[in-house]
Design goal:
Structural class: mainly alpha
Number of strands: 0
Shape: globular
CATH topology of the largest domain: Growth Hormone, Chain: A
Number of helices: 16
Order of helices and strands: HHHHHHHHHHHHHHHH
Mean pLDDT: 86
CATH superfamily of the largest domain: MFS general substrate transporter like domains
Low-confidence stretches: 193-203
CATH architecture of the largest domain: Up-down Bundle
Radius of gyration: 20 Å
Oligomer: single chain
Number of domains: 2
Distance between the termini: 37 Å
């Protein structure tokens, strides 16, 4: 595939990320608050709807990969957008019916559709020149910058339309956006992802998955990707609850999540160039440092500016850590191995993220906001040690000079 087709596909996937991907910030910013509203007694389960969303992403990872192997990326991604649309509609009806468990199940369905969205970043590398792959991933994730605006603004403008179910309007909006995404994804150009890179045998056989997984570079990339995403999800899921618990209006939480998601995806316009210039190891390390800085800001106080600055640093850390780790994973498999490797990676990733979002609510209720940030600190340090060892093994340096 030529560079022009690779760029075109990256732009189509970025547009889909902006539209269909808006479901994620809506789920994250409202799931815990809606859960709190729906629950009468045990508020420790308030973040279970967000957990349901993340469980759906984890459960959908392997089926999404298998479906796309069977029917192709274009039809597979369109099917995923349709699932998001149906899940959003059901979530809205669950809120109108004031049914907590129906809402959790609907969020799980939205998550299953979002599992397809998570693979947009991998699809951008299909058949693309190797020196463009990191930039293609960045272009796709840059679409999330627009999702960061679309999702929270949709929540803000639809609040009150279906009172007392304040968030029902937002999920009706998610349903509409998922349906629009079906048409956007129909513009994706199907490519032969099995085309070999120059210097690689075209018929290179696929290795067993176990052989791919034991590579030190894959293990490091998986640890840093899972660690960055899980820490971000754990702290971010609890942030809206902490903001409201500290006496701030819930609108502060919505806009805090908006700035957070913008920080997650906004740097994607240049993250690929940073990776090309400084290397994956340095970019991942920079992301981990940003995550550590965010925990420090959260621990320093509970003013609005501290919540918002901490959320921005949390998003920036996720961007560098996750994109860098995703690009590193792409180094470890052959084109013929992409489906099973990507599927396993996202299964491990979102299973951990689902667990972290579930524990977020429980830790917040039982131990508080400060403890949540203290729990995340050692995980970031372990990831930092792992990327330092990988850099040393690969002959790279984390520090300039």
């Amino acid at each position: 595939m030529g560079i022009r087709t690779a760029r075109r596909n990256a732009l189509v996937l970025a547009a889909a990320q902006a539209i269909v991907g808006s479901a994620a910030p809506v789920a994250i910013s409202t799931g815990g608050l809606a859960g709190t509203w729906l629950l009468l007694e045990d508020k420790s389960l308030a973040t279970l709807p967000v957990t349901g969303f993340n469980v759906g992403v984890a459960l959908g990872a392997l089926p999404a990969a298998a479906l796309m192997r069977a029917i192709g990326r274009r039809l597979g991604f369109s099917s995923g957008a349709l699932v998001v649309s149906i899940g959003g509609m059901l979530a809205a009806f669950a809120l109108l019916a004031q049914s907590f468990w129906f809402f959790v199940a609907s969020m799980l369905l939205v998550g299953c559709g979002n599992a397809f969205t998570q693979q947009y970043r991998f699809a951008a590398t299909d058949g693309a020149p190797r020196d463009y792959q990191a930039r293609a991933i960045s272009v796709v994730l840059a679409g999330g910058m627009f999702a960061a605006v679309i999702g929270p603004q949709m929540v803000n403008f639809t609040t009150g339309l279906f009172r007392p179910a304040e968030f029902a309007g937002a999920f009706f909006g998610v349903s509409i956006l998922g349906f629009v995404g079906v048409f956007v994804l129909s513009r994706l150009k199907v490519v032969d992802a099995a085309v070999a890179e120059p210097g690689e045998a075209p018929s290179a056989p696929a290795r067993p998955l176990s052989q791919i997984l034991v590579q030190p570079r894959f293990l490091t990339a998986l640890l840093c990707g899972v660690g960055s995403y899980a820490m971000m999800s754990f702290v971010m899921t609890g942030a809206p609850l902490a903001i409201v618990a500290c006496g701030h209006p819930q609108e502060i939480g919505f806009f805090g999540i908006q700035w957070h998601v913008m920080a997650m995806f906004g740097p994607s316009f240049f993250t690929g160039r940073l990776i090309a210039r400084y290397g994956k190891e340095r970019v991942i390390a920079a992301g981990l440092l940003a995550l550590l800085a965010s925990f420090g800001v959260f621990l320093s106080g509970i003013s609005v500016w501290q919540f918002w600055l901490g959320l921005v640093l949390l998003g920036l850390g996720w961007n560098f850590g996750f994109i860098g780790a995703t690009a590193m994973v792409a180094d470890t498999y052959r084109p013929s191995e992409k489906g099973k490797t990507q599927g396993f990676h996202d299964l491990a990733l979102f299973t951990t993220v689902a667990f972290s979002s579930f524990m977020s609510g429980r830790v917040f209720v039982t131990s508080g906001w400060e403890t949540m940030n203290l729990v995340a600190l050692p995980i970031a340090l372990v990831c930092m040690a792992a990327i330092a060892l990988e850099a040393r093994r690969a002959g790279a340096r984390l520090l300039p000079g």
